[in-house]
Amino acid sequence: MRKLVIFIGPLAVAFAQNVAIDPPFADRVFPYITYSEVWKGTPASLKDVAVPNLLIVYGVREDPQVVAQAGKIAFYLGQWTDDIGFGVEEVKESRIPPLLVSDLQLREIPWKNIIVVGTNNDVVKSLGITFSGPTIKVVDKDGKKIMVVGGRNEKEVIQAARYLSDVRLNFKAGAYKTFFSFVTLRGLLEKGEWESALRLIKSPQGVSACGKNMSLAAPMVASWSDEVKSVVQKRNSILYKDLPEAIEKRDRKKAVSLWKEAMVTCYQCHQGEGIPQMRKFVPLESIHAKHQRIAESFGLSCINCHAGPTSKRGYSSAP
Q1: Tens digits of per-residue pLDDT, 241-274?
Q2: Which pLDDT belongs to residue 273?
Q3: In the prediction, which pLDDT does 221 show?
Q4: In whole numbers, what is the pLDDT of the chain averaged over residues?
Q5: Is the four-CA dihedral 180, 181, 186, 192 of positive or negative sign?
Q6: Are 300 and 186 in contact, with CB atoms under 8 Å apart?
Q7: What is the percentage of the chain residues whose pLDDT exceeds 90?
């Protein structure tokens, strides 16, 4: 089976040097989250809320340092989601959904997807897999997805786990908060909600959540072409300088125009429009498609955002 070894420039030294992803991009398209109704039974009940779509598993005989890394993975997953997914009935019955469980507890819990941290556990034993180095490996079994964070020893397991938490899930949390906030921003501009729009740009849970991604990508920027750097600089100038200025002046025409210009820069990197495609995988539609529901909640349709150079909808794999 093919493996993709990820190199993250200087980041690799601290996080994930020579971490193998098997199969390629499996860490990027794993169904980490889903959308569900939460707080049912209260006046604040909400639907379409991001909740975990997995359990994180450790072995009862696992090294404590490995178990600690499982906890860190749970933390970054929490950065991405909005809630664990419960309501009044779950509280009454003392069954708040679990997230971090041992391999022994897993035997008694129905599950759809799991991340298994470490190799000293029943799951890895039953799969019969071995590792030649720090690895993120995903296997399908009985219609369920199992991600194993493994290695030949505790040091390599921790290395792979740090990549999954500090890089991959950290990046996912920032990317999706930014993406969905960017779509929300378009709706706020359409409605003339200027104060809300400005707050959304500046919020660490809003458009500025991209600070996570920019920080993580910073060591790689030096290796990018001037052409790619120019696109990124333009995008950042629009989102964090020009667009806020237009919003402060309540200039709707200019603000919407700038928003569309920013979207063009997104397309350039994600779709390879005019520059080499930076995104090399197709995102999971089950997670990604929420942006359509956000747009519709403002009365917007696809053509309000997708037009001209951004008329293409959906994703295709990089050539």
Answers
A1: 999 999 999 999 999 999 999 999 998 888 888 8
A2: 81
A3: 85
A4: 91
A5: positive
A6: yes
A7: 81
Cβ–Cβ < 8 Å for 147, 160: no
Residue 134 preceded by cis peptide, ω within 30: no
Q: Are strands 144-150 and 135-141 parallel, antiparallel or unpaired?
A: antiparallel
Per-residue pLDDT tens digits for 60-107: 999 999 999 999 999 999 999 999 999 999 999 999 999 999 999 999
Residue 6's nearest CA partner among 236, 164, 146 is 164
- Give the Cα separation of 229 and 222 in Å (integer): 9
What are the extents of the domains in the chain? 4-162, 170-310
Question: Looking at residue 278, what is its pLDDT?
Answer: 82
- 146 closest CA partner among 138, 154, 134: 138
Diameter of the chain by CA atoms?
63
CATH of 4-162, one of 3.30.379, 3.40.50, 3.40.720, 1.10.3720: 3.30.379
pLDDT, position 274:
83
Cα–Cα distance between 23 and 12 in angstroms, integer? Answer: 19
In terms of pLDDT, which residue wins out, 165 or 18?
165
**End-to-end Cα, the chain, rounded Å:** 21
Residue 277 has pLDDT above 90, yes or no: no
